[in-house]
Design a protein that fits this description.
Elements lengths: L13 E5 L7 H17 L3 E3 L5 H6 L4 H12 L4 E4 L5 H12 L3 E4 L10 E3 L1
Parallel strand pairs: 1-2, 1-3, 3-4
Antiparallel strand pairs: 4-5
Helix pairs in contact: 3-4
Length: about 120
């Protein structure tokens, strides 16, 4: 992969960051997703964080189904999906969609930093 850490490069693989959002504390969940995205970016990936739509939701309320449909439309254009650990019905739907559509998962083991992730083909 050609990259300069923390910068943009058109060849960077795009990673969809999936994980808990409304289960538990939303602010904590958003922070965890951003933390994962930062590590992915520093590792040379271009992360997409759907959790950042929380401001959009505050201004224009949409249903869970509408957000999932939008998430799938974006996820379909990604090279990888990364799952932030934790209970999440939405992330479960996204993971199933990724698997059905051949989107590879960046798979973290417990205690492993994202930069050391194994790509599951």
């Amino acid at each position: 992969m050609t990259e300069t850490k923390g910068t943009y490069n058109i060849t960077q693989p795009v990673v969809y960051v999936s994980g808990p959002y409304t289960t538990g504390d939303t602010a904590t969940n958003v922070a965890r997703a951003i933390e994962a995205a930062e590590e992915l970016w520093q590792a040379g990936y271009a992360p997409f964080v759907p959790h950042l739509s929380f401001l959009w939701q505050m201004l224009y309320s949409h249903t869970w189904d509408e957000w999932i449909a939008l998430d799938k439309a974006i996820l379909a254009r990604c090279d990888y999906i990364y799952r932030v650990p934790g209970k999440s019905p939405g992330a479960d739907v996204e993971m199933a969609f990724a698997k059905e559509n051949g989107i590879k998962e960046l798979f973290p083991d417990s205690g492993i930093r994202i930069m050391d992730i194994e790509v599951i083909e």
